[in-house]
Structures are given as C-alpha cells and as structure tokens.
Amino acid sequence: MNEILNKEPVQRVQNKLKEFDKSLEVVVLDTSARTAKDAAESLKTEVGSIVKSLLLRTKTSFLLCLVAGDKRCSLNKIKKILNQKDVSMANAEQVKEITGFTIGGVSPIGHLNKIEIFIDESLKRFANIFAAAGHPNSIFKINFENLCKITNGSIRDISE
C-alpha cells in the first residue's frame, strides 16, 4: 500500500490535492479501480459517481474529458464544441506522454503538461465523486464544485 503512495504519479496527485485543500487525500484500495465499474464495486458506490478521465486528440492539441462512469463521452458533441472534424481518443503512448499517467490511473489533476479540461455536467448529480489518483488502485474523493475549481475545467454537455 505504501509503495503505491510513494509512486511518482500518485505523489503528483497528492501534492496537487494538498495544495488545494489539506483535507483531500489519495486513498489506496485493496481492489482495482482500473475501470469505472471496478472502482464503483471497490467503493460500494454508483458507477456514475466515478470520474472517467479520457484524453482526446485533435489535429493540434489534446483535451481531457471528465465523464461520469455511467455515461459515454460523445465525440460528436466535442467536435461541435471545438468546431473540429478530427477528434479521437489518444492512444496509450500519448496518454502517458501528455498526462504522465498510464491508462487505468489517469487523474483529472497532476498532469505533466497543461491540458484543457472539459467536465461533463452529468457529474453534478452526485454529492461526492471519485477520480483516479495516478495508479489503478488509488483514487480521491471530491465534490463537483471542487473538481471544477481544482482542474480549472469548463462544465460542458459532453456525454450521451
């Protein structure tokens, strides 16, 4: 458990959380939180309260979309918002290079590079939401308002 907390990606998330609010912390689970379903089962919570952090690629940049675990990210809605024809999921190498996290542990915060962030408005329905914290077995709990503040993300209708 301590070895997970000592991993550099998890440390980046922990530092960002503590900078924002001393009461927020990374929690290491005994079970995997690699998928929204796994995380919800581990936390005994609704799948929708799990934040999926999805890195998308445009012709010129990357965009991180934070979507409720029970929703799908709508590439069509994102194409309309960005007014771009070419928007797709980033591959595993790009995710690692841009965010500093591997798929299954991509956190909404603590990235290696500055990334524009869209937050799906459907996450508003939950008092608390849970997001990956840099490792498939680590998460943090936060409310919607604070997720918006800590990520500096824009609230959008990006799911279906």
Main traits of this protein?
single chain; 160 residues; alpha/beta; YbaK protein; 6 helices
Give the secondary structure arrangement, pairings included.
Layout: H1 2-5, H2 8-20, E1 26-28, H3 36-43, E2 50-57, E3 62-68, H4 75-82, E4 88-89, H5 92-99, E5 116-120, E6 129-132, E7 138-142, H6 144-151, E8 154-156
Q: State the fourth-level CATH superfamily.
A: YbaK/aminoacyl-tRNA synthetase-associated domain
Give the distance, in angstroms, between the N- and C-terminal Cα atoms: 36 Å
Beta strand %:
15-25%
- Report the CATH C-level class: Alpha Beta
Radius of gyration over C-alpha positions, nearest whole angstrom: 14 Å
**Beta-strand segment tally:** 8
Decide which structural class fits the backbone.
alpha/beta
- How is the CATH topology named? YbaK protein
What would you say the CATH architecture is? Alpha-Beta Complex
What's the helix-strand series? HHEHEEHEHEEEHE
Q: Based on CA inertia axes, which overall geometry fits?
A: globular
Main sheet characteristics: 8 strands, mixed
Q: Give the mean pLDDT.
A: 95
> Helix share of residues?
25-40%
Number of domains: 1
Low-confidence stretches: none
The number of helices is 6
Structure description:
This protein has helices at residues 2-5, 8-20, 36-43, 75-82, 92-99, 144-151, and strands at residues 26-28, 50-57, 62-68, 88-89, 116-120, 129-132, 138-142, 154-156. The chain has 160 residues and is an alpha/beta fold. It has a single domain (2-156), classed as YbaK protein (Alpha-Beta Complex). Strands 1, 2, 3, 4, 5, 6, 7 and 8 form an eight-stranded mixed β-sheet that branches. The radius of gyration is 14 Å and the shape is globular. The N and C termini lie far apart (36 Å). The model has no long low-confidence stretch (mean pLDDT 95).
